[in-house]
Request: fold
Amino acid sequence: MEKIRMAVKRDYYEVLGVSKNATPEDIKKAFRRLAKEHHPDRNHEDGSAERFKEINEAYEVLSDEGKRNTYDRFGHAGNGAQDFGGFGGFGFNGFGDIFDAFFGASAEAETAARPGSDIHARVTLTFEEAALGCEKEITINRVVSCSRCHGSRSEPGSNTSRCPECDGRGRVQRVQQSLFGRFTNIVTCPRCAGEGRIIEQPCSECRGSGKERRQHSVKVNFPAGIDNGNAIRLTGEGDVGEKGGPHGNVYITAEVQPHKYFRREGFDVHYDLEINFAQAALGCEIEIPTLYGDEKLKVPSGTQSGTVFKVKNKGIRRLQRSGQGDQLVNLRVLTPEKLTREQKKLFEQLLNSFNGGQPIKRKAKH
Ligand SMILES: [Zn+2]
Ligand SMILES: [Zn+2]
Reply:
């Protein structure tokens, strides 16, 4: 965007309508005339603000002998600066500063409606609640319009009068003397703060603020698959806006508790299963828990420790997509730590039946 705008940048002399040989006095005169003409306070035509910036920019360069020399030699690229997109060559930081300083704060911004503040809250969910989805009632402590004065800030039945300073308009004109001449600025009325009216008796409930804090309950639906740190947005449930602006939003962040057995990875659920090596050697059928109830898992004979079994579609429903993850069963074969006398005997027989106590041959990996 910036590059395109810069590519069609007009010649600064052309912008000010002066010749290349213009004296500093000519440039100053041309600038004052154009700045007045295109001042956005007077000129409400489309593009006048842009034009005004362009004029300021041209003046900024041409009124400075050093910058003007550089501009005459190198054009918009400035001091050989490679950066056409910026004003690095002339060493200034864009025009926001000049522009804003010139006008002061916009009167618009102060009197206009503004949305209320957002509220951030946290809620703790169990592993199952997050995985399967749930509905919870959440209490929000938010700022609302005062119930006594309905936000008018004035005691019901009392008078409000039109502000004499701004005659009810909320804004007053200020004539400002600046480097570039006299300008009329429109500012927020200091007496009524832009309200246009004077409250004679402030509301006794909110002491004239027009607001109060109230607890508010909402039912929040947490979709299946929500994960730790995910947030739900409740549009318009936040604090009341300023001067008729909309309510802010509420963001509720889920904190999901760890599970006794399960571990989540994406939409898959991991479960660690330990069996002894007789079970591993002979094979077995074992009941394992899943999010959806117990399931039988068949462990075939000769299963090695570290084998992962996949139980299809017993994971977590995918958020905003169809389908669901799997449950992954990570098998660990345990070596018995304590043996009865009889077990010890059996193991000795077992040992002899294998290879008489010699270590298992090293297997080459290839
Ligand atoms: Zn009130
Ligand atoms: Zn006023």
Summary: Residues 24-38 form the longest helix (15 residues). Residues 146, 148-149, 203, 205-206, 210 surround zinc ion (ligand 1) (CB under 6 Å).
